[in-house]
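Tetraspanin
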Amino acid sequence: LSPGAKMGCFTFIKVMMILFNLAIFLSGGTLLGVGIWVKVDGESFVDIFGTLSSSVLQVVNVSYVLIVIGSILLVIGFLGCYGAQKESKCLLMMFFSVVLIIFIAEVAVAVVALVYTGLAETLLSALVTPVLKEKYGVDAAFTQIWNTTMTKVHCCGLNNYTDFNDSVWYETHKLYPSQCSPALAYPHLCGCLLQGCFDQILEEIRTNAGVAGGVAAGIAALEIAAMAVSMYLYCRLDEK
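Structure:
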């Protein structure tokens, strides 16, 4: 290619890099804002999105998930957008490094989830169960999210009803949540106790594995493309 064509190609890719990362930055700001809204006024959020109770996000504190993801997207968007606009090799390399770390972490999580499902369940249980014992019945938004999940998914606790043993809720009320009570009070009617939400949600994920895999593949492709473009701009700056 002629020098003019190379410069035109560089400018086009630079503009696309700026616009793409500007969109990421704005998306991150939106998620961060929604996360803060959920943290401050979780009940109204649940009233609006309560029908999404089968979502994995309802097993954990949604506000923290949104705040963390939003903050990460803000950082990535800023580094990519400002780095491309200022043609800063330092910011472009930081952008590449952050996206690479996230990509590696996603691959590691996917491998653990696919190959070591039991280990993933153990880790999730170790993280979520103590929070469930501590916050259920204390944090209104957290309690509402769990109540919606257990009602819609027909489950009890993360693993089963024993997750509520020694919890603040059980110590205060001396009974299990109402979503678990029918099965515990009349086990002969259903033949078994309610399953934990983890098993139910895992089954939901397996049912929609194709959609989840397609979304994951799309995100991975975007991350690889973003890293390739940032490296292209980084290397082309040496030729300018």
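The two ends are 15 Å apart (CA to CA).
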